[in-house]
Request: fold
Amino acid sequence: MKLSAYIEGIGLLGPGLNDWPSSQAILGGQQAYQALKTLLPPPALLPAAERRRSGAIVKLTLATGLEAIAAAGLNAADLPSVFSSSGGDGENCHAICEMLASDDRQISPTRFHNSVHNAAAGYWSIATGAMTSSSVLCAFDACFGAGLLETLTQVVVDNTRSVLLACDTAYPEPLYSARPIPDAFGIALVLAPQRSAQALAQITVSLTDANANPLEDAALENLRCAIPAARGLPLLRAIALRQAQRVVLDYLDSARLAVDITLC
Reply:
């Protein structure tokens, strides 16, 4: 079975990748990549109280999602959304574990409500005013592939646009030793069922047993392998190069995703 949709907008934020426009030259090999720490912008759309309570994954999803939607010329309030992460907010999980391991085991209400896996989706709704459906996935190393399949399914079945927000945040020690995600990284894609003036490329996705495509740049390949949400980088590289091609993305141990890209 194949699923097909059009990419209308892209959002990108990660180590040394500050947004989609400035990252295209890096992904295309025209500019050297430097793995600088991810800088998360403040979530300006949130009211002051929610802005103070928001964690890294909220800032990350808002930054990438709003970038993709603005590039597509759309209103975030109108779009269904799919949030996909390997494990949610690593920093908040670390802080709660520290409290539970201390003599004072009183967890703050803010820490508690940020611990649920759909916290980013809730903050997104507050910031954008979106009352549309929102799906929240947790898929460990398969988070980008699972999110892409879920978003494509919604686009095809419901014949409507949807936005994918695949994001991961770092785990501090000692959790890092068990789950070594070194930094925050996010990709957002606005997908549409029909071609429009904003369309960048058409993608057709199917399952395959072929090996995933590595990135030629060693530092970018390290990033792709280190953070689950970054498994989508070969797709973005093909679009940055303006190349119609097939790329194979990591998904499950038993299956990968073959993505046929046709430029618009």
Notes: Residues 56-72 form the longest helix (17 residues). The two ends are 23 Å apart (CA to CA). The domain at 3-263 is CATH 3.40.47.10 (Peroxisomal Thiolase; Chain A, domain 1). The beta strands are 3-13, 81-85, 134-138, 162-168, 185-192, 201-208, 245-249, 256-263.
